[in-house]
Amino acid sequence: MDIATLAGLGIGIVLVFWGMLSSAGGNMQIYINIPSILITGGGTLAATMISFRLNQVMKAMKLFQIAMQEKLPDPSEIIGTLVALAEKARKEGLLALEEEANRFDDPFFKKGIQLVVDGTDPQLLKSILETELLFMEERHKTGRAVFETMASFAPAFGLIGTLIGLVAMLVHLDDPKKVGPGMAVALLTTLYGALIANLFCLPVANKLKLRSAQEILLKEVIIEGILSIQAGDNPRIVEEKLKSFFAPEIREQFERTREGQERVIPLRQTREA
Amino acid sequence: MDIATLAGLGIGIVLVFWGMLSSAGGNMQIYINIPSILITGGGTLAATMISFRLNQVMKAMKLFQIAMQEKLPDPSEIIGTLVALAEKARKEGLLALEEEANRFDDPFFKKGIQLVVDGTDPQLLKSILETELLFMEERHKTGRAVFETMASFAPAFGLIGTLIGLVAMLVHLDDPKKVGPGMAVALLTTLYGALIANLFCLPVANKLKLRSAQEILLKEVIIEGILSIQAGDNPRIVEEKLKSFFAPEIREQFERTREGQERVIPLRQTREA
Amino acid sequence: MDIATLAGLGIGIVLVFWGMLSSAGGNMQIYINIPSILITGGGTLAATMISFRLNQVMKAMKLFQIAMQEKLPDPSEIIGTLVALAEKARKEGLLALEEEANRFDDPFFKKGIQLVVDGTDPQLLKSILETELLFMEERHKTGRAVFETMASFAPAFGLIGTLIGLVAMLVHLDDPKKVGPGMAVALLTTLYGALIANLFCLPVANKLKLRSAQEILLKEVIIEGILSIQAGDNPRIVEEKLKSFFAPEIREQFERTREGQERVIPLRQTREA
Amino acid sequence: MDIATLAGLGIGIVLVFWGMLSSAGGNMQIYINIPSILITGGGTLAATMISFRLNQVMKAMKLFQIAMQEKLPDPSEIIGTLVALAEKARKEGLLALEEEANRFDDPFFKKGIQLVVDGTDPQLLKSILETELLFMEERHKTGRAVFETMASFAPAFGLIGTLIGLVAMLVHLDDPKKVGPGMAVALLTTLYGALIANLFCLPVANKLKLRSAQEILLKEVIIEGILSIQAGDNPRIVEEKLKSFFAPEIREQFERTREGQERVIPLRQTREA
Amino acid sequence: MDIATLAGLGIGIVLVFWGMLSSAGGNMQIYINIPSILITGGGTLAATMISFRLNQVMKAMKLFQIAMQEKLPDPSEIIGTLVALAEKARKEGLLALEEEANRFDDPFFKKGIQLVVDGTDPQLLKSILETELLFMEERHKTGRAVFETMASFAPAFGLIGTLIGLVAMLVHLDDPKKVGPGMAVALLTTLYGALIANLFCLPVANKLKLRSAQEILLKEVIIEGILSIQAGDNPRIVEEKLKSFFAPEIREQFERTREGQERVIPLRQTREA
Q1: How far apart are CA A174 and CA A191, in angstroms?
Q2: How far is the C-alpha of C119 from the C-alpha of C129, rounded, in Å?
Q3: Which one of A167, A181, A236, A243 has the fewest beta carbons within 10 angstroms of its own beta carbon?
Q4: Closest listed residue to residue E16, CA positions, set A248, B212, C273, D157
Q5: Per-residue pLDDT tens digits for E221-235
Q6: How far is B73 from chain C (nearest CA, A)?
Q7: Which residue, B47, B61, B34, B224, is CA-closest to B129?
Q8: What is the pLDDT of residue B171?
Q9: pLDDT digits (tens, 9 = 90+) for B53-83
Q10: Which residue among D50, D139, D172 places its CB closest to the CB of E204?
Q11: Span C152-173, mean pLDDT?
């Protein structure tokens, strides 16, 4: 799992809990109210379910899990692998890539190399891989939209819960002892709504957006590299083309790695390790 | 009706009612106030009626009903039908499609096939079907706009109702017994406004948007397929072209279906079933 | 006047008044406060006057009046007129349109036909009519912007009025009898601001936007038709071209009308009726 | 100064003052609090200074002054001048424009004519004038951004001031006599923030936007006219081209002016008057 | 450090502190509450950490420091340097630029000149420098996004802290002595959130945006100048081309500087001073 995400979630939850404990003098239970949790969380989920189709809501949850756990491959590793494949293709021909293709974990990379080996027309190859990328981007966008929609409904259902509580409390205003606790419970849904939106949904939507952009960039590098290999480009030119996709730090990192070890098919080897 | 929409609406309403019951200690009637319902709901409708023309507001309601009840055809079924038609056209000529055309329920599909049989010029055929699609998209957008407009006016009229109630209550502040119930009634319109917007209008507008996008995609597939049939493309190529419109899951689903049964005109057969 | 606009405004005002009456127990005058009306309404107008030029604010009011009273011509009528003119031009030549031109009320239509009769170059004709359309669109946009600007300033001046009232009330908090009525008066400006924005400015801006889009579509149809007539297109083709601008209902309506009566210059005849 | 701006500002200020007087029973000083003015106004200025560079903030103030005082030239006057120059250029040659160029106040107009007299290449002439226009537009946009930024910070610092006041008041809640005046003072910053944003910054930003659009249109007309003169176009065509930039009213106004007096170089004459 | 930023931050902080002191009667400590600072500041940082990757958050802080301390080079100085280099290249050939290249501090300028000396293909040279510029822009955008994200989370966590405090206070409403101080502490987080957003994050994001635009403009001038030098343009034309990027004031400033001293490589000399 991404260290910043984990740390951020942990720090946020710890701070909020500690803030509650220090405010309530240790009496944590004043912040827990099952009906309030059900109205805010359940209402948010209900509105999100009306907004999307059931399988989209479920896919978003899965997408979140994957995004948090799986690490994206290292850009310098991908460049290295593509340069090594370009060298192999120049020396032994495109058909020699067949045995390499089977070693990749990434289905996108594998499919691309297989299509090259099959002798697919470059135009069709490009179109197939780009269509695949387009649908990946759309799926990411929908997954993100589920979290963004939840983030917009959570404060709304927090307010709805608070209004329900306030109305009940106000009707019995003649008993002053009930006013305080009544309002306290009423405000809990607003608090829950703000926490759901700001400590979970919005930051996760932000992170998914960032990650999606990175993953798309990596796939674009793979498409560019595979097309360059198919065209029989010089490995040096393949390397120059692919490096231009990244920031200076990553370029330097790739050059340092390259000097340290002369890997042939680094991506696969790393994966096997 | 779409299961997620139904479930979402149901869960949302049940949670809100249950929240009211548990807050009010079973005394549900403190949440029901006819003047408050009339000001919030009626005011929202009034502002929406000024914003649109009467027939647009009514069409939106009908569009909502249709969208909730009717199921969109299965993408893999549409591909299958178009591939089967392409095969028939290759074997028996375009005129042989005439008898098939009459079997379709979908007027858009029917009209397209009829135009092919009539020997319409491809350019004109494309233009006619795309114009039809454009206006369908515009109608969907207006229908959605009605719900979005209601979602923005509902909280505003909720606030207006609350202010009306507060002013009346504040004038008689000297009687402390009336303060609580007065404020409770005043807050009801804000509650109604939030519920109208967040439990009904906004989620429905979201769902209509999603559904419109799906329907447009299906119509684009039909246009592409009909043009491909008219051009006399090989059924295999027709299939490849159409599959590129969909996500991998749907492609696999189509291939599974294809292997299981060798249907000639699947869409019609399914419809008759 | 547009029936939905009238009905919407009427229903909205009646509901708000009735809500006030039922809240105040018939004592309507607690909702009327001249200084509050002046601060909210006057402040909104003042800020709008700084934002625009005086003649733009005045034109917007006039535009509103026109838009509410005048009915847009019927699309099927415009198609009919243009088709009839195309037939006449085919039979008797473009010069024969001169006598027809003088019969139109609509200056845009009249100018277009006059330019055709004058033998204006098609490119220049198109450019002149489109420039005219562009400036009509700009004028509509500015007129709408006046209402949108008022809608954004009204709640702000409502808040300013409430703050002015609250400060005055709070300074004399030692007299508890004045608290309630003081706050009631203070809240009136917020109520007025919300009503100005949501019952008048925003719905009117919405309606003007919708109407502008319809009027522009009609003018585009007229430009297309006049250019087609000038080019000597077959009346049947003129009809097909123009019908593609409208939704299926309007196309059908045109065909029904056509069958019922074989009008030569329907637009003029209708206008004279 | 623009009459609507002056009137709007005057009416707004008078209404707010009168509202304060009538609320406070003539005791105006309850609305004046120096620390509150300093926190709201000073905080807004401070945040704006961090956002921009010092000279940009100062230029914005100057731009505001100029925009409020200087009147934009009359479109029909500019058309008249350009048509007169076109006539002169046709009769006496482009060099004859030299003596006219020195008579203009507007440096943009002067520069354009001087470049024509110097025999500048049309492509370069167009590029120089359009670059100048582009930078004028950018300067206007930055000037406007200063007011828009102030409009967004003013309510925020109003809230900050109110929170500072509320905290101080709440700590001494045991003395009920201080509660009212304390809250009154606390709310003053919110009032000041709302007034700064809605009675000054936002309307001024709106007016600057409108004025910038008008000034750019006039400069575009001058560029079009100068290029047309350089190309040796017939004065009649120059007139037709330039009139198409304006709304019908301005075209008619130009034609009325033209009939009334046959001016040769009207712009200069008006300026000397 | 930029004088306006420093002054703005200083004035803002002094005004807020002074406002607190004058409100609290010198008892500053009522505005300081460690748990409140931790919940607002820590929660904001936590949500920002989930939104971005750790190294992006850290880079943003560094970017802020650099942006505040380093002064951007003077546009007229950059034009002067490029014109001087163009003169040298015309007289002594492109290779003569090699010794100059080593004197520059700016790695972007240095790299560009080195690539010219190396005889890089103009197309490739342009592409390399523009890619570098693109990634600089992207890095700036991400750095700014960190501050913008913090600005949107800070008020949200301010509200969360206030709700936590309010709930704790309301539960013990029966002790009226605790109400005031309890609410005072609860409101502190809202105050902190508003200050973090409006006195720090938003103005800094605004300033970073402005500075990024300036830096990109300077780099574009350098690219244009280097390409012009490589193409062997006349120094006079190089100057004209580059001056068109700037506003009139900067053009005049460059001309004044030019007359005062006839510098050969001004940028380097200034840097050594």
Answers
A1: 26
A2: 15
A3: A236
A4: D157
A5: 899 899 989 988 888
A6: 22
A7: B224
A8: 85
A9: 888 888 888 877 877 776 778 888 888 889 9
A10: D50
A11: 92
Q: Of A83-87, B265-269, D129-133, E96-100, where does mean pLDDT reach its minimum?
A: B265-269
- Quote the minimal CA–CA distance from D16 to chain C in Å: 6
Q: What is the dihedral of CA D81, D83, D86, D88, to 10 degrees?
A: -70
Enter the DSSP assignment of B247.
Answer: -
In tens, the pLDDT along D155-169 reads 999 999 999 999 988
CA within 13 Å, CB half, E149: 29
pLDDT band at A127 (very low <50, low <70, confident <90, very high): confident
Band of pLDDT at residue E62, cut at 50, 70 and 90 = confident
Q: Are B211 and B114 in contact (CB under 8 A)?
A: no
Residues 6+ apart with CB under 8 A from A179: A169, A173, E173
Coil, strand, or helix at residue C263?
coil
CA gap D92, E99 in Å, rounded: 57
Q: How confident is the model at residue D62 (pLDDT cuts 50, 70, 90)?
A: confident
Q: 3-state SS of E13-44? A: HHHHHHHHHHHHCCCHHHHCCHHHHHHHHHHH
Could you tell me which chain A residue has the CA closest to the CA of B248?
A132
Average pLDDT for chain C:
84
* C184 contacts on B by Cβ (under 8 Å): 166-168, 170-171
Q: How far apart are CA B72 and CA E251, in angstroms?
A: 64
* Closest of C61, C72, C43 to residue C204, by C-alpha: C61
Find the CB nearest D31 among C51, C54, C167: C167
Confidence of residue D142 (pLDDT cuts 50, 70, 90): confident
Q: Which residue in E35, E54, E167 is closest to A22 by CB distance?
A: E35
Sign (positive or negative) of CA dihedral E38, E43, E46, E52: negative
Chain E residues in contact with A4 (beta carbon < 8 A): 49-50, 52-54, 57
ipTM of the complex: 0.81
Contacts of C168 in chain D (CB under 8 A): 20, 23-25, 30, 184
Minimal Cα–Cα distance from C242 to chain D, Å?
27
Six-digit token pair at D259? 């009939």
> What residues in chain E have their Cβ under 8 A from chain A's Cβ atoms?
35, 38-39, 42-43, 45-54, 57, 127-128, 131-132, 135, 138-139, 149, 153, 156-157, 159-161, 163-168, 170-174
